[in-house]
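fwd from M.: "can u put these together and see what the complex looks like"

so here's what she sent:
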Amino acid sequence: MPKRRTAYKVPKKFSIARARLAQRLISERVLEEDILPPHICYAAGVDLAFLDNIAIAAAVVIEYPSLKLVRKEAIIVDIKFPYIPTLLAFREVYPSYVALKHVGDYDILFVDGNGKLHPFKAGFACHLGVIVDKPTIGIAKKLLCGKVGEWYGDKAPIFLNSEVVGYALKTGRSKKPIYVSVGHKITLETAIRLTKAFTKPSYKLPEPIRQAHILANNQKAALCENTV
DNA sequence: GCGACAG
DNA sequence: ATCTTGTCGC
């Protein structure tokens, strides 16, 4: 009788090793193909604001092509996990997931944070995208890793291990670009096209993220007033 | 070992 | 992300 053993060791408590294992499993589930409706009507966006150890998670739904805000919900959750570069998802995924459940259905999701533009190709956008199982686009305002390639008009590829994992994209009137990458169920090309489609000419960020950010901060301000 | 490092 | 005022320009 052969000796029975586990395929690999799975730590029971949190550890960097366990987090990396989770990220590897997440990255293996990410689908970089367009599995989305032929015509996008609604795009959801999520963003968080913090106050001590609590997070205010805001989720919104933007209609296309009007780019009007049609749904918005915010929730409050206690936060224990700290912000650690490359492990952002472990701090923000749960609140985001809960807030998203309150805005109903949508065709695509915009997340503020990277998708595959991550050291282990498992950024926050991949993590959340796989969990909610929706076409997801990652939008970051700063470069986490990788090297910016040659610019072609308004965009430049981001290389990581000689592989294109995202694009720097100049939107609105901003000199600084935003960084677009695949979260889940979408190709990089479509992610860029939809990011542009959901971004108003005068703003740098796509509406789903911009509106979610505004809502999160408004809710935080309202919460502070009630505390005073 | 050192520096960098989404939100 | 958060702490913070004014300010330059379209």
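replying to her w this: Residues 47-48, 50, 83-86, 88, 91-92, 112-114, 117-119, 123-125, 138, 140-145, 179 of chain A lie near DNA strand B (CB under 10 Å from a C1').
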